[in-house]
UniProtKB/TrEMBL annotation:
Gene3D superfamilies: 3.50.30.30, Zn peptidases (3.40.630.10). Pfam families: Peptidase_M28 (PF04389). SUPFAM superfamilies: PA domain (SSF52025), Zn-dependent exopeptidases (SSF53187). GO terms for biological process: proteolysis. GO terms for molecular function: metalloexopeptidase activity. It comes from Christiangramia flava JLT2011. This is Uncharacterized protein.
Length: 490
């Protein structure tokens, strides 16, 4: 009797002390723990966590062991918290180009092997599709003006150049040279990004023989359209190197007998851009505190929280490598998922390019999924207003790892620190050596993390499964992935 009474008293007591999701988010996110993660991940020791470097591996080890300490289960394929894979890094050659006896000093290899070529090229001005399809280009080098008569911005030159390259390859041309006119600062930053490139080992290199160059000259070329040009191209010093790297993964099962078959992914990339050009103070280590020690720490906070207080749905934690090399870690993951993708009902990604407004959480793709209400509630409960992408022209939805999942059909927004524009305050730190742990507002970050954890719990415990809003670009992909019956298809 006594015991029963005690048990029932205890039962009542336990019930009345059961914490709400809000309290669980509030109580488990700790400012000092958060600082510990960020200061470690952004330490100079890790040399900017560039994919394939020892600093990247040290970061991965730290994250793997945090997941271990929270009780996550390892990758069943490796029985570790890693998903290892290999990439190939190419260092572009130095290229010299001359045409009709004039030598040009600013030449960028968009795609070039080591070679020494000379002979007659053909000049086709901007070159329309119709002109290109008509011309005999077999084995030829074609010289163009970059872009179109009404678009010479680097981005449009690049896009149009890729279209021309496709036609030229079909016609059996040997390569193309485009004359562009780009200011020296933009030129050097583009040259920097083409200097090294990284791809998957298994990616086909079928077209790598096709030569593609940009020549920067403030004056438009004075060749005659349709006429031959004497040219010489020499490219030397191209190198390839293998990079070993790894995603970090771990999962936790949900508590609900039905909902545990559905997983919420909590993800962030942990790599950054490594060592680069020094700033005025001589600092050359790009520590990436904002980009993306902040996001990585959001995932750790979630894992710690769910480790202590499991949600109804299961949780998969993924920390990506290779994001800065072109979203490679997330692309690799969706091709090699450790648990079938159709069990993943949501990807709550977090990536931080920086912030300029500490009253906000900016969620790229907020209004694109039916979980928007939970994310707004999550952020607002901790004093932050949730807004959608304020800089749509930047194409941010397609520039972080969430898009790898969205393309597969999984609803996937990116939760980011508050910004209301891509302005000078953002660029002060974005991909700069100044992006350091001691430059962050930790009072703000506490709210940011509590908002993330609370939002995640609301999504993971909701009886209703989240999905794309009607008419979204990825809605069809989602219906296909989840094998939705025809009756649900509109
Ligand atoms: Zn970045």
């Amino acid at each position: 009797m006594k015991q029963l009474l005690l048990l029932s008293l205890l039962g009542i007591a336990l019930n009345s002390f059961a914490q709400t999701d809000k309290e669980l988010a509030e109580n488990t996110v700790d400012s000092n723990i958060v600082k510990g993660h960020i200061y470690f991940l952004a330490d100079d020791l890790l040399m900017g966590r560039e994919t394939g470097t020892p600093g990247n591996k040290i970061a991965a080890s730290y994250l793997a062991n945090m997941l271990r300490s929270y009780g996550a289960k390892p990758n069943p394929e490796t029985n570790t918290y890693y998903q290892p894979f290999e990439l190939v890094e190419t260092t572009a050659p130095e290229v010299e180009f001359s045409a009709n006896d004039k030598t040009y000093s600013e030449v960028m290899p968009i795609n070039a092997n080591n070679l020494d070529l000379s002979g007659k090229a053909i000049y086709l001005d901007y070159g329309s599709d119709t002109e290109l399809k008509k011309a005999d280009l077999q084995g030829k080098i074609v010289i163009f003006k970059g872009g179109t008569s009404d678009g010479q911005a680097p981005r449009s030159v690049y896009r149009r150049g890729m279209e021309k390259a496709e036609i030229l390859k079909e016609k059996g041309a040997a390569g193309m040279v485009e004359f562009v006119s780009i200011d020296s600062q933009t030129w050097s930053s583009i040259a920097h990004s083409f200097h090294k490139s990284v791809r998957f080992t298994e990616d086909s290199t079928a077209h790598s023989e096709f030569l593609q160059l940009w020549v920067n000259d403030s004056l438009p070329p004075k060749f005659e359209k349709g006429k031959q040009v004497d040219f010489r191209i020499s490219a030397t010093g191209k190198k390839e190197k293998k990079l070993a790297t790894q995603n970090v993964v771990g999962y936790m099962e949900g508590t609900d007998p039905e909902l545990k078959n559905e997983y919420i992914i909590y993800s962030a990339h942990y790599d950054h851009v490594g060592i680069g050009r020094p700033n005025a103070e001589g600092d050359s280590i790009y520590n990436g505190a904002r980009d993306n020690a902040i996001g990585t720490t959001a995932v750790l906070s979630m894992a710690e929280n769910i480790g202590n207080y499991p949600t109804k749905r299961s949780a998969l934690f993924i920390l990506f490598t290779g994001e800065e090399k072109g979203l490679l870690g997330s692309q690799y993951y969706v091709k090699h998922p450790i648990i079938p993708l159709e069990k993943m009902v949501y990807c709550f990604n977090t990536d931080g390019g920086g912030y300029n407004n500490t009253e906000l959480a900016t969620i790229i793709g907020l209004e694109r999924t039916t979980a928007a209400k939970h994310i707004k509630n999550g952020a607002e409960t901790f004093g932050l207003r949730a807004i959608d992408d304020p800089a749509k022209e930047q194409g941010l939805f397609d520039r972080s790892d969430n898009v790898s999942f969205a393309k597969m059909g999984i609803p996937a927004p990116t939760y980011s620190t508050g910004f209301d524009a891509f302005d000078a305050e953002i660029f002060k730190y974005y991909h700069q050596p100044s992006d350091e742990a001691n430059s962050l507002d930790y009072q703000y970050l506490l709210k940011f993390y509590q908002g993330y954890v609370y939002s995640g719990r609301l999504i993971a415990n909701d009886a209703e499964t989240p999905f794309w809003v009607q008419g979204d670009k990825y809605e069809e992909a989602g219906k296909k992935l989840y094998h939705m019956p025809a009756a649900l298809k509109d």
